[in-house]
Amino acid sequence: MRRVSIIGSGMAVPAQEVSAAMLDARLGLRTGTSFKKTGVRRRFLSSNETAAQLAARACQTALEDAGLAWSEIDCLVATSATMDQALPYNAALIHAELKLSARRTTTFDIGASCMSFLTGFDTMSYLVEAGRYQYVMLVSSDIATFGLDWNNLTECGIFGDGAAAVVIRRSLPSESSCILSSSSITLSAGVDHCRIPAGGSRYHPRRLTTPIDALSVFQMEGRSAFKLIAAEMAEFTEGLLNKADVSMKQITKIVPHQASQLAIHHLTKRLGVSSEKVMNIFADYGNQVGASLPTALHLCRTGQHIARGDTMMLIGSGAGLTLGGMVLVY
Question: Is pLDDT at 223 greater than 90 in this prediction?
Answer without folding.
Answer: no
